[in-house]
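Suppose you are handed a protein chain with no further information: no name, no annotation, nothing but its sequence. What can you learn? This example shows the usual starting point.
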Amino acid sequence: MHDLAAGVKRFQQHVFPAKAELFAGLAAGHRPDTLFISCSDARVVPELITGSEPGELFVIRTAGNLVPPYAPGPDGVAAGIEYAVAVLGVSGIVVCGHSACGAMTALAESHDLTSTPAIADWLRHADASRARAAAGAGSAPTVDALVRHNVLAQLANLATHPSVARAANRLTLHGWVYDIPTGAVEELAPVGRPAAPAA
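A reasonable first move is to predict its three-dimensional structure. Written in structure tokens, the prediction is:
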């Protein structure tokens, strides 16, 4: 905690004064253009990777950058997506996976998760990712392959959310994979607009 407190002090003394005008404007609200869904991994910092200023990204971070398919009931991820799309009016959504993802490693290597039942339950949202990756590999997928297939599966899950379907005519979806050791960002296909809701 000492390091965090020292960081706050540096922010208040050096960073905040240099951006005081920006923060004054943000005090009244924010209009980010992009919803950025990434892994909770401490090595993945969306604002740093994209060179974004405060207020430019609306960020949701989950273990494995997982987006559960829409289902009625309380869901923090669904609420964040709905707020970004329906209230803030973002025009783009990025689902960003990354190299050496712990969640995807656990799945690819069939780690024993019996002592961490909450993690095991959460990673069931990647079942479609595993099925996609296994079909593509013809055998047990590598971590890298699973990371990529997982991004595509989460984009498909994202499209099940009513707020995303209703905004299909103005939203563009992107799948990215960030490589930690090189800083490279790969954009995956398919990208584009989600399916429009049925009339």
